[in-house]
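My current task is to audit a protein record that another person submitted. My question to you is simply how this chain folds and whether the C-alpha cells agree. This is what I was given:
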Amino acid sequence: MQFFPKKVLHRKWHTMRRNPARARMENRGSVLAFGSFGLKAMGEARVRSNQVEAARKVIARSLGKTGKTWVRVFPDMPYTQKPAEVKMGKGKGEPAGYQVQVWPGRIVFEIDGITEAAAREALRKAGTKLPMKTKVITRV
C-alpha cells in the first residue's frame, strides 16, 4: 500500500520556505486521538511516502493480528527530481513522488491493543525509518 493522493489539482508545487531559525511547534495532531501509544516527531522533516510505508510495515509486523494502527500523516505534496547526469537549467524536473511536511510535536503513528513494552519497541523501530528524531508517548 503506497501513500499518494488519488487526484491532484496541481502537478508541481512551489518548494515552500524552510527557515531553520523558526522553531515552529505543531498544534494540529499533537495529542493522542485514537490509540493508547503514539510516535511523536521531535524535529521537522519532509517525510516521503516510502518512508511512511516502511515505518507502517514495521509496526504492522510487530502488532501481528492483535493490535490496530493509525497513520496520522498523509503525503500529498509532490516533489520533483531531474534525471541523473542532466545539466543545470531547462526547467523544473518531473514529479518523482509525494511527501508531507512534519513539524515538531506532530503525532505520526498511533497504536492500540498491545502491551506497553511491545508498543514501545514497535514504535522505536518505526522511528528509525523516519528522517527526524521521534519520541514514544502514552495516553495519561
